[in-house]
Write a structure and sequence with these properties.
single chain, 137 residues, mainly alpha, 6 helices, 2 strands, 46% helix, DUF4939, DUF4939 domain-containing protein
Length: 137
């Protein structure tokens, strides 16, 4: 009688080792806040890398991301989906459009500074609005 050495599924005559893949991590939803954009895309990329067989096509990646959108981000996708090609890709184009829309490299403080320094000709924005009758403090 030939006895085979224990394989990966058996260690001894009565011990059986069960291998289980790690459970998939849930991806967070995204509501359109620019502070969360790159983190959201990182989580999606990790999901694509963990299960490459599930995301072999552009449309599978796009539909995965759209399924996680909420609020203004979902409204953006709804508007984009009026174009039949949006959900089929190419993924790189959808990703670029998504980043341009939601992934600002400027912080809220940077944007506030720009607004405070707006001017019309030689007039600051507050003076311009007052003189035009558009703003009364």
């Amino acid at each position: 009688r030939t006895v085979s050495p224990p394989g990966p599924e058996t260690i001894g005559p009565t011990e059986v080792t069960h291998f289980h893949p790690a459970p998939p991590l849930p991806c967070p939803t995204f509501s359109g806040e620019f502070e969360d954009c790159y983190g959201f895309l990182l989580q999606c990329r990790l999901a694509f890398e963990r299960s490459p067989h599930a995301f072999m096509t552009d449309s599978s990646r796009i539909s995965f991301i759209v399924g996680l959108l909420r609020g203004k981000a979902l409204r953006w996708a709804e508007a984009k989906s009026r174009n039949a090609e949006f959900l089929s890709g190419p993924y790189a184009d959808v990703l670029e459009d998504f980043k341009q829309t939601f992934c600002s490299s400027e912080t809220t403080t940077d944007i506030r500074k720009k607004i405070l320094h707006l001017s019309q000709g030689r007039k600051w924005w507050q003076s311009y609005l007052r003189s035009s009758g558009l703003w009364r403090p």
